[in-house]
Amino acid sequence: MRPVRTAFAGALLGALTLAGCGQSPAPAPDAAVASPAPSGAADFPVTVEAGNGSIAIAKRPERIVSLSPTATESLFAVGAGAQVIAVDDQSNHPAEAPKTDLSGFKPNVEAIIAKKPDLVVLANDADDIVAKLTKVNVPVLLEPSATKLDEAYDQIADLGAATGNKAKADELVAGMRKQIDELAAAAPKDKKLTFYHELDTTPYSATSTTFIGQIYGLFGLTNVADKAPDAAGGYPKLSAEFVAQADPDLVFLADTKCCAQSRDTLAKRPGWSKLTAVKNDQVIALDDDVASRWGPRVVDLAKQVGDAVQRAATE
């Protein structure tokens, strides 16, 4: 985990002794009734180590703009949902996220500033948006695509600390670690199963060096894309012939929503009807979003992979 500054919340005060005696003193006429501080407010100021360096956040943000679907999911998962006032046009989970026409791919600095944010979370620095927002004193956290699970956990911890929800974020990360470790440990690994992960119908895939590839690696699976002639930074473009020759035991489709792919559509591709995965009904339909994000729902992805491995190993 990257280090974050923490502080202890102050103790609550109460007239417990008087209440225990059955007495309830009236407040003095001129006494001011203080409103309770928001949960986590005492944790500030805080410094978070993000992709854009050490970011100091003076007080608990109450107007957060998220331009990253993964960050949106994480913010709501750590308990910061009520602090989020706008999310980008690709953020579709959870359903209550305040979706807008803001773009994380082509960010409009004026449109973002118009939301009067006290924190903006991004996954990429498109059009030098970090510098533009920093110039007008808007705190920005750059949380880029994770390349391994520890980075995903770290980003959730970052967002928890940055929003005054550190305890909930730490609890979430601990739970994710435990579930994924247990799922991976329970997976049978003696059959040396091979797999193919499809990103789209081109088809593009992902090697073991990528975040998604490393998830599969936890379950002892061998990635057929690792033998692609051109790794292309971890996302090689494969040919239909390459996949047919590799003949994977399992096929995971991450293009079911975008491109309506299924076992039936694969069977119609030249030479693919004879794939072992197609013949044995070992084609697993993934949710495109879950399979492409590195937030809390990576546990759901791990469960699907684990179930598929268990099923294939027993047949």
Mean of pLDDT: 89
Helix content: 25-40%
Question: Which radius of gyration do the C-alpha atoms yield?
Answer: 24 Å
Side by side, the strands of the main sheet go 4-3-5-6
| Form type | elongated
Largest sheet: 4 strands, parallel
Instruction: Please report which band the strand proportion falls in: under 5%, 5-15%, 15-25%, 25-35%, 35-45% or over 45%.
Output: 5-15%
- Name the poorly predicted regions: 1-35
CATH top level class name of the largest domain: Alpha Beta
Can you tell me about this structure?
With 315 residues, this protein is α/β, with parallel strands linked by helices. The protein has two domains: 38-173, 3-Layer(aba) Sandwich (Rossmann fold), CATH 3.40.50; 187-313, Nitrogenase molybdenum iron protein domain (Rossmann fold), CATH 3.40.50.1980. 35% of the residues lie in helices and 12% in strands. The chain has 13 helices and ten strands. It has helices at 16-20, 69-77, 109-113, 129-135, 149-163, 166-186, 211-217, 240-246, 256-259, 263-267, 276-279, 288-292, 298-313; strands at 46-50, 53-57, 64-66, 84-87, 119-122, 140-142, 194-198, 222-223, 250-253, 283-285. The strands form three sheets. Strands 4-3-5-6 form a four-stranded parallel β-sheet, sandwiched between helices. Strands 8-7-9-10 form a four-stranded parallel β-sheet. The longest helix is centred in the middle third of the chain and has 21 residues, at 166-186. The radius of gyration is 24 Å and the shape is elongated. The two termini are 40 Å apart.
